[in-house]
Amino acid sequence: MPEDQVDTAREQDIQAVSRTAQILGLFGPETPELSVAETTRRLGLNRTTVHRYFSSMVSSGLLERVEDSALVRPGRSILQLGSFVLGQQRIIQMAPAYLRELALDIKVSIVLSLWGASGPVVSLVEEADHPTLVTVRVGSQLALNSSQAKVFLAFLPDQFHADRLTGSLPEPQRTEIRRRVETIRQAGMSSDVNHRGICVLAAPVFAAAGICATIAAVGTERMLPASLDSREAVALKAACKRLTKEMGGTWPGTTGEE
């Protein structure tokens, strides 16, 4: 394709994204629904253009049509995104007390990760007061074979997305991770010891929309037993269940009353 056509296509894409954002930006507490006429008036676009954008955004799930009317409102995709963002904000506010309690109790570093574009991202770290310190840098992108990634993969609401991610891995790593994910789904948490003797116990935290974070205990094998029946693992799982309850989520296999 000639360079001038490429530039034109790129400009059109940018304009489409900009207009989509403008339409979504019109919604708010005072404007829960929109009509073509109102959108046309407020954005200065013609009716045909607004009709076209409405149709495209409805097809993609960004908008949905209001029953028995010509109005539209934010669609399921937007509501899911909003719920996800609010959940991340809430857990970042609520989790530090749980991390401090765990670090004091089991004397190892405690790490909370949120799901990023293609895997967990370390978002909070509480370091233990211990002569031997094993820690992780905030902002680190964790690999798909990490304990916290496997916990996310086990409980992501969109398991097709999880399968696509693991499907990009080479064999035999892909088969091994999928086997471990199924084990984690049954046990409710993960335990891994790497070649350097670092043990990681990881468990999920759920909000109303599903898994919203993972919390991991990180230490050497001498500091942190790898057994899922250990005192440390039980303490981690209990903390994640309490935080899940506070987040309005439900731990798998429970009624949400634990």
From TrEMBL:
Keyword check for Transcription: yes
Listed SUPFAM superfamilies: GAF domain-like, Winged helix' DNA-binding domain
PROSITE patterns: HTH_ICLR, ICLR_ED
A Pfam cross-reference name: HTH_IclR
UniProt entry keywords in alphabetical sequence: DNA-binding, Transcription, Transcription regulation
Domain HTH iclR-type positions: 14-88
Keyword Glycoprotein: no
PANTHER family named among the record's database cross-references: HELIX-TURN-HELIX TRANSCRIPTIONAL REGULATOR, ICLR FAMILY, TRANSCRIPTIONAL REGULATORY PROTEIN
Protein name, entry field: Transcriptional regulator
Origin species: Cryptosporangium japonicum
